[in-house]
Structures are given as structure tokens and as C-alpha cells.
From TrEMBL, chain A:
Database matches in InterPro entries: NADP_DH_HndA-like, NuoE-like, NuoE_dom, NuoE_N, Thioredoxin-like_sf
Keyword Metal-binding included in the entry's annotation: yes
Molecular-function GO terms, alphabetical: 2 iron, 2 sulfur cluster binding; hydrogen dehydrogenase (NADP+) activity; metal ion binding
Cofactor(s) required for function per UniProt: [2Fe-2S] cluster
SUPFAM superfamilies given in the database record: Thioredoxin-like
Organism: Ruminiclostridium hungatei
Full protein name: NADP-reducing hydrogenase subunit HndA
Lineage: Bacteria, Bacillati, Bacillota, Clostridia, Eubacteriales
Class in the EC hierarchy, top level: oxidoreductase
Family classification: Belongs to the complex I 24 kDa subunit family.
Pfam families the record matches: 2Fe-2S_thioredx
TrEMBL record, chain B:
Record organism: Ruminiclostridium hungatei
GO MF annotation terms: 4 iron, 4 sulfur cluster binding; FMN binding; hydrogen dehydrogenase (NADP+) activity; metal ion binding; NADH dehydrogenase (ubiquinone) activity
InterPro entries: NADH-UbQ_OxRdtase_51kDa_CS, Nuo51_FMN-bd, Nuo51_FMN-bd_sf, Nuop51_4Fe4S-bd, Nuop51_4Fe4S-bd_sf, SLBB_dom
EC category name: oxidoreductase
Limits of the NADH-ubiquinone oxidoreductase 51kDa subunit iron-sulphur binding domain: 326-371
Protein name: NADP-reducing hydrogenase subunit HndC
Family matches, as SMART domains: NADH_4Fe-4S
Key words of the record: 4Fe-4S, Iron, Iron-sulfur, Metal-binding, Oxidoreductase
Gene3D superfamilies: 3.10.20.600, 6.10.250.1450, NADH-ubiquinone oxidoreductase 51kDa subunit (3.40.50.11540), NADH-ubiquinone oxidoreductase 51kDa subunit, iron-sulphur binding domain (1.20.1440.230)
EC numbers, comma separated: 1.12.1.3
Pfam families in alphabetical order: Complex1_51K, NADH_4Fe-4S, SLBB_2
Family, per entry: Belongs to the complex I 51 kDa subunit family.
Gene: hndC_2
UniProtKB/TrEMBL annotation, chain C:
Repeat as UniProt keyword: yes
SMART domains reported for this sequence: Fe_hyd_SSU, NADH-G_4Fe-4S_3
Domain 4Fe-4S His(Cys)3-ligated-type: 80-119
Pfam families named in the record: Fe_hyd_lg_C, Fe_hyd_SSU, Fer2_4, Fer4_7, NADH-G_4Fe-4S_3
Organism of this sequence: Ruminiclostridium hungatei (Clostridium hungatei)
GO molecular function: 4 iron, 4 sulfur cluster binding; ferredoxin hydrogenase activity; hydrogen dehydrogenase (NADP+) activity; iron ion binding
Domain 4Fe-4S ferredoxin-type: 138-168, 181-210
Name of the protein in question: NADP-reducing hydrogenase subunit HndC
Cross-referenced Gene3D superfamilies: 3.10.20.740, 3.30.70.20, 3.40.50.1780, Fe-only Hydrogenase (Larger Subunit), Chain L, domain 3, Iron hydrogenase, small subunit
């Protein structure tokens, strides 16, 4: 909880910064998600009903309430990507990783999600792994990229 | 044409205040500080600048109204949520020339007497947030932000980057303000408008990244000069985002008055793979979809409005004839279904039901009754939704039906001419 | 006051500035339908059922939150409006569990009426979003699949009660009202006040139905089933049978209970009097002997749980007296069996309460004496009405019945326990007599009456100034305690009721369409209780002859060992 306290202090223990606090905590969690105990701790420290904090973290799509894989693979599904072949990327990832969107691979390395636009429409179809965006993809190129992440393991 | 917004793109280190100044930066702020507040606002009014986020409200009038409000403190807020699919212009400003935004906001702060400002940047732009943050720190060090800016006693202004966390609806002004306050991004009832009662219930000046970024140039070179770059009804230049099935995708700074055809074919190099253009989706996900026949319309708020379409954020998604209008619509509707905040019934349940109805078309199980229901529901969403998201979500549906009704009727009869929809 | 001229559906009307279209239309007897709107509490303008057309304005506008302006021309029932309303209601219905026939709110459901009025005959949609299972973890039952997301419960829980155990979660079509992590209410800070039930326009919230337990006991020949009815029940039960709010139907209720098969029909008013003896004694003891002050009342189990969760510093301030419900049970299983010559183990005590938190209170582990639970079953006013209807009793035609003796006599003081300020007034009546050693005639403490959220008074008795305060609704209690905490106010005695207006507005009371939570209804029920008070032979608890007998024959003195064992309790920091 020391970690959590530090983050809260850095943000002035203010309710106004709840989202910023949670984004930082998710990065620190190692599970790409917000651990239940941390969320409860934040609610107590900020003197907010837990239900309200839960309301916020379930509203924003970037937060996870359940542990996710080391790498969150986001496949953009918005229109510019859709018309340039995003569908084939998703199909390839589902096959390669053996998961459906929203699921995590058995080894806990990848979580596959479909995401609304992340602003890479000029290089569609695009995916995002962690903070890194990959564009102008074909299933072959993507397979190669996924493998490099695997090899790091 | 000399550029207003993208002149420095790629030419300076984005977070270097020195390089920004060397490239003509901060002249606008200095000039503003030598002007009467009302004169500065007059320049912006002369510029014929309209809000670049999509609503196209005249910025000069907005600032004049905000200036007239006596209550304080006032806040400067920048909408950098840019969640609109097909839109990536603010990304370029934020990552390649963040100082033009920072300077624009600082000019606003000077005029309004605001001491605090927030730049709300979508959560997906993590790397860009860092660039802007670094630019802010450097501006503070150089005396362009912080206390007694440029040595002027009492001119204090601090800026803070606030991250979104994945919610398209936060592009709506009041939802964005709620989100800055750490809450769920659900829109507020208007009135009161945020100019009177915005962040922390205080008067708030809120503009898009691109709008603020026009301000330094307008002050520096004059509102008239800016205005003359465009048309009689739309001053200046616009960042347009080309994406989809077009050769040269990317951001283009164009003067108002250029036609869509010139943008797509001359600058964009036309449709990819030698295919034909089927339709253009203009202005973002909630914009109109229209065919080739409207491409000679000038990019100008007035001309577009006359043609029944709106410029929105400046997104231009080109869709070629291999795609099915109904399948495309399904994709658009799924976006709104996921991004609806859930507050009001028409949008929350309506977006969900539109997906259900469109699904029936793509599966070949729709009836005429479904078709009529879809149209009626779309009208209700348009008239009765709480905020712009729900009100404009049916626009692609209504416009696709307008121009491609035949394809919808074919789907009712179980055929998809493009073969994209796998009929059951 | 600035007046504004508007025209609604062709009729001109002059209204005050800041009036909404909804209110202006009401003046003209135009009923614009609403669903999410709850004046002053929940005004999100989000359900969109009330949309209307305004000349010159684009789109439709919610009448509930749109203020009129000079010259406004409104149309409330054009083709566009009717189509929009119909579409909106279809949308709400399409994601609503439509098991109307088996719903606790059948025939009393606001959505049902809206759909009926607006011609919803069939639904054009197929699927629905599953929103989790029914929460049966506590006395408040929540069915998320019936929820229409109006937010009324959320607002009441957070704004009025300051509890905030439920909120919206997720977004879009998946949005739901829930506790954190979708865990049951019982696992969280819910105080079981049931105000959410009263706020709910549909049957998404209801009380746990305990009538089966009661029917079963009534049929068990080995059991001696006794019933107590809380003060506030008698002035509200009638509403279930068409009487105006506040009508006293005690006589008919007693007869109905007898017909249902209860062996004895007693009264919680009796044990309210008993509470005053113990609590008054405790207060005087604390004042004289330097005990913890201010002393705070403990009759309201919603308030108690609220305090246990949020105000640990004040647990010692709570009176150790059990609530009247529990005191009744303790006496009904100790003193009463001796007098009635029955085995205490065979005495089955049923409470009829205006309250859902009483169900929780009865199940608290410490609420038992020598292994016998004080109370065996608690039903609400609404549940009693259901039992009466189910048994085919024509309530309105019943002759008046009388309470049974030895736990049935009551004073006016015991009666007004059912409304805010009543416990305070009842206590003052007794304390004043004790302190002066006289039987005083001036016993109307009007300063503590009324619907104000927080009331304060200083009462001079026998040369002593007693400072008192009354809070109703836990939200107001929070405000009051924060003042006490800051040292701002030095009270001797504080009364807290968990619900606004007191028990008369409890979570178990009848739900009256349209004006369910209005002050009008609260005031009428309160008046009903004060009318009974005025008509009582004795208006002071210590003058209740059955109470005097109970102490003389069994308990000894107030606060003595036996009284302590039976009638007092302790609290837990949660």
C-alpha cells in the first residue's frame, strides 16, 4: 500500500485526480489492471464511497478490474481500420493467440481487446501493444510482431 | 500557401521553447500583452475562426461572451480528447508543435485573467502527453508560464496535462469537464453552459487543440489576414485528416475553399487499388456519408451546410466500392453502442437497438418493418438524446439510407451486392 | 417575483420565473409524463420520457429540467413528441424484465402506467442485455434486470441518506446500478433503510418477503403467535386500501390481525413507552453522573448501522437501549410467558414495521436473551397489506378491534415515536416530570416537531437547560454529527431517525404513486399520529398503567439488572 499512498500523495490526495491516480496505479500494478485492495484503499483515503470509485473505473475503457496479460494487444475496429482490413488482423490474432477479444492467453502474456480509435488512422489497419502503435499491417507483418513479443519472454 | 498551423511541423524539436521562439513563436503573446483585451478579442472575431472540434461555434464570439462574465476564477481548458475515428490532426499539433497550443491558451489566459489551465489529452496518447508535459515545463523555465509571465507583474498562468482514460464521450464539453474533475464522463444538463458554469462550477473557456493553436498566428498577423486565407464564411486554414481507401493518407493543412475532390484526388492521390470511390464519411463517426456527386462541394462551413453536411473535426474517411454500405453502417453503429455513456435512454438503448436492427440487415433477416423502425428510432435519437453524441449518432445511418437506400432494400431481400455480408 | 408568459398547447399562462415547463404545464392540468424526475433529489433530465416541442428550438426538450422563458410556446403532444415518447418507452421496456404479473409492483408500477398511457402494445426488439443476478443478500432485494436506470435510488442513497452504497457502473447499454464489484448490499455499507425501494418507479427494488414465515407460524398449532405493530403503521396501512394518507386504521388493523390468526395483538407503542422509561433514566444518569454526552437515540436501526459504519467516535454516545421492537420481543419472551402461562420457547413474535431495517435489526446476533431471539419475523406495512388481501379480508368493512392486554396499552408519547421529533418529545415529557417531581401539564414540545431536517431546542426544566437536537434522514444526521464533532454545539440529547420524517416515511411504508415521497404525505401521516396522541388518556410513557405494572411485577427499577439484561444492547464498529 506504500506505493499507492505515494501515488495519492503525489496527486494531493484529491478526488479530482482520481482518474490520474488510477492510471498510474494500473501502470504500477504489473497486471495491467487495478487490484481490488488498491481500489478500496483509494476509496478510503479519498473519502469516497467505494461504489463511486467503482463507477469511475468501470466507465473508462482503459481500466481493468481483473488481472490482464503482460501485453494488452488492442486491435482498432473503427471505420478507417475496418475498411482497410482490420477484420483480417483480428481473425489472425484470434487464431495465433487462441483467445477471443477480452480474453488473456493461457501463459498470461497477451490480452486481446478490440478498441475504438486510437488515432492511427493514417497508418490503418493498426494495433497497439502497450504504448506502442503498429500500422500499415497485414496478417503476416502482425504475426511477426507478435512473435517478437513472445521471444522476449 | 504559407501555413498557419503546420508550418513548424517536423522542423523544430517539439518541446524546445528556444526553437519555437526562433521559428516565430510567442510573438502573438507579446503582441497581446501590448494590446487592450477587447482589441485582442476583436482580432479573433475578425479572423472568422470557427471552433475546430466539430461544433463550429465562432471563437471570437465565444471569447467575447466569456470575457464579459464577471465571476471568477476563470479556467482555460483545452479539448485534446480527439476520440473521433478518422481524426488525428490534434495528435500532430500536440506532438510536433505543442507550443502553438500553449501560446494560444496563454493568450486566452491573459485576456480572460485566468490563472489555471488544463489540457485534456486522450489516454491513448501517452507518449504525446509526455511531450506536452515537457513543453509546459520548459515554458515555465523560460518564463512563458508560471508566475509573472514575461516579467509582467501579476500575469500568472499554470498549465496541467490531464489524461483521459478511454471514453469518446469526453470529447463533449461538459463530459470533459466532469472527467477533469475525476468523475465519470457523463454530460451535464445545459444550461448552465460551461462559459458560465464549467470546471469546478466556474466560468470556463474551452476550445479544441486546433482552435487554440490558430490564436497566436491570428494575433501576430492579424485577424483579417487569417480570414482572407479562407472563404467569406470560413476564415483561415483547416487541418484535414485523410484516411481509409485513399493513396496518401495523412494530415493536410488546406485553405478553406478547396473542394473535397481536390483534397481527395489532388492531395490524396485518389482511391487505392484502382477502385472507385463509393462514399466519403466526413467529419468523424457522427458525420454524413455521401457519394461522389457531392465531392465538388467546397470545404467551407457555409457551402457544406448548404449541401446538408457538416465539416465536423475534419476527418475524411474514403470508402471504396468493394465495401457494403450496410456493413459499414454496422461498424459505425457498434462504435456508438460502445461509446454511449448510458445516461439518457435514446442513446443508451437506441445505439444498442440500432446495432441489433442493422445486424438483421447484414444477416438478411430484416423486414420492411425493421427498416421503418430503424428510421423512426434514428429520428427519435436525433431529437431527444441528451447530448451531441446521441443526437448525431444516427447521422451516418440516415445519410447512408438517403444515398444507398437500394442496398438496404436488397439486404431485406437477402442479397449483398458486394458479397461482404454473409447472409444467413 | 418576476412573472413570465408562456403558451402551452395553445393555452396562455403566467408563471413565476425559474418555473420548469413541467410545472407550468401542471398549472394548466396538462400531465407531461415523467420517469426519472424526483423533484429536488433526482433531476438528471435523462430518461427523456417528458420531452416536448418548443417553437423555434431544434429537437425536443425535457420538460422536467427546462425552464420557461418569456414568450415560450410549448407543445406537449404533437406527432413528433408522441412518436419520440413511444420509441423511448419501447427502448426502456425492451431492456426491462417484463414479468409484470409476478412483480411486487404490479399495478403500482410507474413504467406500466406510462406504457399503458402511451399505447405500447408490442415491442419491436428481440434481445436484451443481462445485467447480473438478483441480490438477495439482505432485507433489500435488488433485481438489476428490472432496473430502468432512472437513478432515483442512487440519488436518494447518496444525496438524502449520505450512504452511497449503490451507483452507476459501466456505460452504454451495459450500464447498471450496483454496489462496488457487484457484490450484494449486505457486504457493503447499506443501512437497509429502504428509501431506495420507495424511490424506485418499478419493481427493481423491494423488501425481502417474509410473509411465508409468518403464514407458517400462524398455521403451527404448537406456537403462540403474538404480533406488535409499530406506531407509524396505523396511519399508513389504510393507504393500501384506498384511505387518505394519515388516516388512523388501528381498529380495523387489530381486527384484521386477529382474523389472520394471531393469538395476541399487541402494540409497539407499549414498548416505545418502555423505551422512554429506560432511555429517560439513562439520560438523567448520564447528565447527573458525567456520562458520555450528547446521548443519541437508538430506536432507528438504519441510523444505528449508519453510525456503526461512519461515526465510530459516536458509538459510546448511542443510548444502550434496545429499540422498541426489540424491547417488545424481549418482554414478550420473558415477562409475558409467565403471565400468560406459556412456554417462552413456543412464543413466536411477529413485528409489523414501517421499516426494512427492522428486518436486519431482528437478525442481529446480540438481539437475543438466553438463546431466544427477541423477534422471530418482521414484515413491513406493505407485506401486512398483502397478507390481508391474500386472506380475502375486506379491510374497509371491518369493525374496530381492541388491543390485547398486558403488552397493548400505550400513551400518546409512545405513539409519536413514529415521527421525527417524537422520541425527543416523549422523552422530554417523562424527564420533565422526573426532574420536577410533578405531573406537568405543558407537554407539547412543538420546537422539535415538523419536517425540518435538523431541529434544535433548549428546554428549561427545574432550573436546568437541556439542549436537544433532532435529525431526520441519515444525511441530516451526518451534518448534525459533523457539527457536534467540530465542538460547535453542546447538546445533551439528540434524536436521530434514519428516514426523513421518521418512521412514517420508512422504507416499508405503502408506496403512493406520484406523491410517494412528498412532504404532503409525510405531514398527513405525522398529523395522524399527533391526533392519536391528543386523544390518548395518558400522554406520558411513565403513566402507562401496563408499563407501571411491568416494572412493579417484574423488572424492578429502570436500569436495574434485569432491565439491563433484557432491554439494553451494545454496538459494533463496522
Amino acid at each position: 500500500m506504500q506505493k499507492v499512498k505515494e501515488v495519492l500523495n503525489r496527486h494531493g490526495n484529491s478526488k479530482d485526480n482520481l482518474i490520474q491516480v488510477m492510471l498510474e496505479l494500473q501502470n504500477l500494478s504489473g497486471t495491467n489492471s487495478l487490484p481490488h485492495e488498491w481500489v478500496e484503499f483509494v476509496a478510503v483515503e479519498l473519502d469516497m464511497p467505494l461504489s463511486r470509485v467503482y463507477s469511475v473505473i468501470t466507465f473508462y475503457s482503459m481500466f481493468g478490474t481483473e488481472p490482464r496479460g503482460k501485453y494488452v494487444v488492442e486491435v482498432c475496429k473503427s471505420a478507417p481500420c475496418h475498411v482497410t482490413g482490420a477484420g483480417s488482423l483480428l481473425a489472425m490474432l484470434e487464431k495465433e493467440l487462441q483467445v477471443k477479444p477480452g480474453q488473456t492467453t493461457e501463459d498470461g502474456v497477451f490480452t486481446l481487446i478490440q478498441s475504438a480509435c486510437f488515432g492511427a488512422c493514417d497508418i490503418s489497419p493498426a494495433i497497439k501493444i502497450g504504448d506502442k502503435v503498429y500500422g500499415n499491417l497485414t496478417p503476416e507483418k502482425l504475426s511477426h510482431i507478435v512473435n517478437t513479443y513472445r521471444e522476449v519472454q | 500557401m504559407d501555413k498557419v498551423l503546420s508550418a513548424r511541423f517536423g522542423k523544430i524539436k517539439p518541446d524546445s521553447v528556444e526553437e519555437y521562439i526562433a521559428a516565430g513563436g510567442y510573438e502573438g503573446l507579446k503582441k497581446t500583452m501590448a494590446m487592450e483585451h477587447v482589441d485582442a478579442i476583436e482580432e479573433i472575431k475578425k479572423a472568422n475562426l470557427f471552433g475546430r472540434g466539430g461544433a463550429a461555434y465562432p471563437t471570437g464570439i465565444k471569447w467575447e461572451q466569456a470575457y464579459a462574465i464577471q465571476r471568477g476564477p476563470k479556467y482555460m481548458v483545452c479539448n485534446g480528447d480527439e476520440g473521433e475515428p478518422g481524426t488525428f490532426k490534434d495528435r500532430h499539433i500536440l506532438s510536433e508543435d505543442p507550443f502553438e497550443l500553449i501560446e494560444g491558451m496563454t493568450i486566452g489566459a491573459y485576456i480572460m485573467g485566468a490563472r489555471e489551465g488544463y489540457i485534456y489529452i486522450r489516454g491513448e496518447y501517452t507518449a504525446i502527453q509526455k511531450i506536452v508535459d515537457s513543453a509546459i515545463k520548459n515554458a515555465e523555465k523560460a518564463g512563458y508560464l508560471g508566475k509573472n509571465i514575461l516579467g509582467r507583474e501579476g500575469f500568472d498562468f499554470t498549465l496541467k496535462v490531464v489524461s483521459g482514460a478511454g471514453a469518446y464521450v469526453c470529447g463533449e464539453n461538459t463530459a470533459l469537464v466532469e472527467s477533469i474533475e475525476g468523475k465519470t464522463g457523463r454530460p451535464r444538463q445545459k444550461p448552465p453552459y460551461i462559459k458560465n458554469c464549467g470546471l469546478y462550477q466556474m466560468p470556463t473557456i474551452l476550445n479544441n487543440v486546433e482552435t487554440y493553436s490558430c490564436i497566436p498566428w491570428i494575433i501576430k498577423d492579424g485577424g483579417d489576414t487569417f480570414s482572407k486565407k479562407g472563404t467569406e464564411f470560413s476564415g483561415g486554414t483547416k487541418l484535414m485528416c485523410l484516411s481509409g481507401n485513399v493513396q496518401n493518407r495523412g494530415v493536410y493543412e488546406i485553405p478553406f475553399g478547396m473542394t473535397l475532390r481536390e483534397l481527395i484526388y489532388d492531395l490524396g492521390g485518389g482511391v487505392t487499388n484502382g477502385r472507385k470511390l463509393k462514399f466519403v464519411h466526413l467529419g468523424g463517426q457522427s458525420g454524413s456519408c455521401f457519394p461522389e456527386s457531392l465531392l465538388d462541394t467546397k470545404i467551407c462551413y457555409y457551402d457544406l451546410k448548404k449541401a446538408g453536411i457538416s465539416l465536423g473535426s475534419g476527418a475524411v474517411v474514403v470508402v471504396d466500392d468493394s465495401h457494403c454500405a450496410v456493413d459499414y453502417l454496422k461498424n459505425s453503429m457498434e462504435f456508438f453502442e460502445e461509446e454511449s455513456c448510458g445516461k439518457c435512454t435514446p442513446c443508451r438503448e437506441g445505439t444498442y437497438r440500432l446495432v441489433e436492427l442493422v445486424d438483421k440487415f447484414t444477416e438478411g433477416t430484416a423486414t420492411m418493418e425493421d427498416f421503418n423502425k430503424m428510421k423512426s428510432l434514428a429520428q427519435t435519437m436525433k431529437t431527444s438524446s441528451f447530448c451531441g453524441l446521441g443526437q448525431s449518432a444516427p447521422v451516418p445511418l440516415l445519410t447512408l439510407i438517403k444515398y444507398f437506400e437500394e442496398e438496404f432494400l436488397e439486404h431485406i431481400n437477402g442479397t449483398c451486392r458486394t458479397g461482404v455480408c454473409k447472409m444467413r | 417575483m418576476e412573472m413570465i408568459n408562456v403558451t402551452i398547447d395553445g393555452i396562455a399562462v403566467e408563471v413565476e420565473k425559474n418555473t420548469t415547463i413541467l410545472e407550468a404545464a401542471k398549472k394548466l392540468n396538462i400531465n407531461i409524463p415523467t420517469l426519472c424526475f424526483m423533484k429536488g433529489v433526482n433531476e438528471p433530465g435523462s430518461c427523456r420520457v417528458c420531452v416536448v416541442e418548443v417553437e423555434g428550438w431544434r429537437g425536443l426538450h425535457p420538460a422536467c429540467v427546462t425552464k420557461v422563458s418569456e414568450g415560450l410556446v410549448v407543445k406537449t403532444s404533437t406527432g413528433t413528441v408522441r412518436e419520440a415518447r413511444k420509441n423511448i418507452l419501447e427502448l426502456i421496456m425492451s431492456n426491462h424484465n417484463r414479468e409484470c404479473l409476478s412483480c411486487s409492483r404490479n399495478l403500482r408500477c410507474e413504467l406500466q402506467t406510462l406504457c399503458n398511457d402511451n399505447g405500447i402494445d408490442r415491442l419491436p426488439y428481440n434481445g436484451k442485455v443481462e445485467k447480473g443476478c438478483i441480490d438477495t443478500s439482505g432485507p433489500i432485494v435488488r433485481d438489476p434486470n428490472k432496473c430502468v436506470l432512472c437513478g432515483r435510488c442512487v440519488s436518494v442513497c447518496s444525496k438524502i441518506q449520505d450512504v452511497g452504497v449503490i451507483d452507476y457502473a459501466y456505460r452504454g447499454a451495459h450500464m447498471t446500478v450496483t454496489t462496488a464489484y457487484e457484490e450484494g448490499l449486505a457486504g457493503h455499507d447499506c443501512i437497509n433503510c429502504g428509501q431506495c425501494i420507495k424511490a424506485c418507479p418499478v419493481g427493481a427494488l423491494s423488501e425481502r418477503d417474509d410473509t411465508a414465515k409468518v403464514w407458517k407460524a400462524l398455521e403451527n398449532q404448537d406456537l403462540h403467535v403474538v404480533v406488535q405493530t409499530a406506531p407509524a403503521v396505523r396511519v399508513a396501512l389504510g393507504e393500501e386500501f384506498g384511505y387518505a394518507p394519515g388516516t388512523n386504521v388501528e381498529g380495523k388493523m387489530v381486527t384484521a390481525l386477529r382474523r389472520l390468526g394471531f393469538d395476541r395483538v399487541f402494540d409497539t407503542n407499549f414498548s416505545a413507552d418502555l423505551t422512554i422509561i429506560e432511555e429517560g433514566n439513562e439520560l438523567l444518569d448520564r447528565i447527573k453522573n458525567g456520562g458520555k454526552l450528547p446521548m443519541i437515540t437508538s430506536c432507528s436501526p438504519g441510523w444505528i448501522k449508519f453510525c456503526e459504519h461512519n461515526y465510530h467516535d459516536f458509538l459510546e454516545n448511542l443510548s444502550t437501549c434496545k429499540s422498541p421492537q426489540q424491547m417488545f420481543g424481549a418482554v414478550a419472551k420473558s415477562y409475558y410467558p409467565i403471565k400468560a402461562d406459556v412456554d417462552p420457547k413456543n412464543v413466536f413474535v411477529v413485528s409489523v414495521m414501517p421499516c426494512t431495517a427492522k428486518k436486519y435489526e431482528a437478525d442481529r446476533e446480540e438481539m437475543q436473551v438466553d438463546g431466544l431471539k427477541d423477534i422471530d419475523a418482521v414484515i413491513t406495512t406493505r407485506e401486512l397489506a398483502r397478507m390481508i388481501r391474500q386472506a380475502g379480508i375486506k379491510f374497509n368493512e371491518l369493525e374496530d378491534g381492541k388491543r390485547d392486554s398486558i403488552l397493548g396499552a400505550y400513551s400518546g408519547a409512545g405513539t409519536i415515536f413514529g415521527n421525527t421529533g417524537g422520541v425527543m418529545e416523549a422523552a422530554l415529557r417523562t424527564v420533565a416530570d422526573k426532574l420536577t417531581g410533578k405531573s406537568l401539564d405543558a407537554i407539547d414540545y412543538t420546537a422539535v416537531r415538523g419536517l425540518a431536517g435538523i431541529k434544535e431546542a433548549t428546554v428549561s426544566i427545574a432550573g436546568m437547560d437541556i439542549k436537544v437536537a433532532v435529525a431526520n434522514g441519515t444525511g441530516n444526521a451526518s451534518k448534525l454529527l459533523d457539527r457536534v464533532k467540530s465542538g460547535e454545539a453542546g447538546y445533551h440529547f439528540i434524536e436521530v431517525m434514519g428516514c426523513e420524517g421518521g418512521c412514517i416515511n420508512g422504507g416499508g411504508q405503502p408506496i403512493i404513486k406520484d406523491k410517494n415521497t412528498t412532504d404532503e404525505v409525510k405531514a398527513a401521516r405525522i398529523k395522524g399520529l399527533y391526533d392519536i396522541d391528543k386523544a390518548c388518556v395518558t400522554r406520558k410513557s411513565h403513566e402507562n398503567p401496563e408499563i407501571q405494572k411491568l416494572y412493579a411485577e417484574y423488572l424492578g427499577e429502570a436500569g436495574d439488572h434485569l432491565a439491563h439484561k433484557l432491554l439494553h444492547t451494545h454496538y459494533i464498529a463496522r
